[in-house]
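Researcher: Let's run the pair from yesterday's discussion. Sequence first, then tokens, for each.
Model: Starting with the first of the pair.
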Amino acid sequence: MPEPTDLLNSDSWATSFPKSSEIAELICLRIQREKLVPGSYLGTVEKLTEEFGVSRSVIREAVGNLRGLGVITGRPKVGLSVAEGDIQSVLRKVLVPQTTCEKGWREVAQLRVVIEIGSLPMVTQNITEAQLDRLQQIIDEQSTLLANDQLSSGLLLQKFVEKDLLFHEALLQSANQELITQFHQVLMKYFQQGIDFFPLPTSQMIHEHQQVVDALRNRDCAAAVQSLTVHLKPIHSILNSLDETTESSSDESFD
């Protein structure tokens, strides 16, 4: 594992990035590499200045950026420590204010669609047989739920949505990209808050999941993208209906 100063001096860093951004990224890499937990001591500004071989102003700017994101914290005469040890904690701080309003929820839903479809080439390339079998298991569980006529419509929707989100989480994990997985997990957590907008479960939804899995088994990325795009169309319909409602309310306010 290369030392932070080796990474800093390597040619892989784009010269267009401010030095403070490079330092901030290296501090984050150190937190991840050493699996530092909240409260772990990172040192003082003076210590980091010496460690990275840059000026105090560069370190202070990097530290200020990370403190603003909630990654690190500090106290005078004590030094700096880890405030949040993973990207999910930072993303939650960004997304919580967004999901408290309808517009914010719509943006989260749109971002979910973009990430899922955009990640399918990596999923197609990296997915394992075990992961395909797990997706198939979730599909079978959804089929069992839909066939259970003892469940109320409300309980069926709740349980079906839980399985649906589990399917999409497992799908993105198959991309084998930790950053995408963590980002998606946070998005799905807040996307679920819009369950009142979800359509009732149908056999067509299960069929669409099956088409995605079949395409992935055949390593057919184009077919997987097409099937997932069709499957996610209801989200677009929900977003469009919400937009129309918003526009209608806006027009009425001017009458």
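Model: Moving on to the second of the pair.
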Amino acid sequence: MGRFDEAEQHLREALRMRRALQGPEHPDIAGLLHNLGALYWDQGQLARADSVLREALAMKRTVYDPPHVKVALTLKQLALLRETQGRTEEAGARHRAAVAMYETVRPTEHPAIARARFAYGRFLLDQGRVDAARPVLRSAHHVLSDTPANPEATIQTALNYGQCLTRLGQYQKANAVLEEGRTLAETHGRQEALQEVQTALAAVEGK
């Protein structure tokens, strides 16, 4: 049995036990459903991920009193899934809903808000909406650059914000942001991310 099969079996057994002990709806059950849906998404099983994540979202809206951070988490996961499915209009709506909910339940510069903004900003950038992406990515970069506990997120935010600035012709700012990303990638030994940042820097050189 592979690692994925083991993880799926573990989550399904945990769901069975929780439902037997806690009934059909409970915060723990909603959390397990979210994790199972994320597992399916990670494995490319998009239809199964969609079904389970929507079940998790519906249950969270019942067992929590929205707005709630747990509901926002699943909204963001569904937004990422919708991107993968090519359902861009719904992906954008889910991203906006997740950001708005995080902004309601977390302090202004909380890393969870920044990560949600980063996901939304990257989505906008991928859609070619560069002007709309810039303030979203700038806000995410501002917070995450002061959050050393998650260097991977900080590097990716610097990369995407730098790429956004490059596409807007703001080469000096782009270079400074990307250099921050390169320093972090080198410091934390993130070789794949380092290559991405170096490629982005090469596009700025000589501009």
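Researcher: Give me one sentence on the second I can quote.
Model: Residues 6 and 12 are 10 Å apart (CA to CA).
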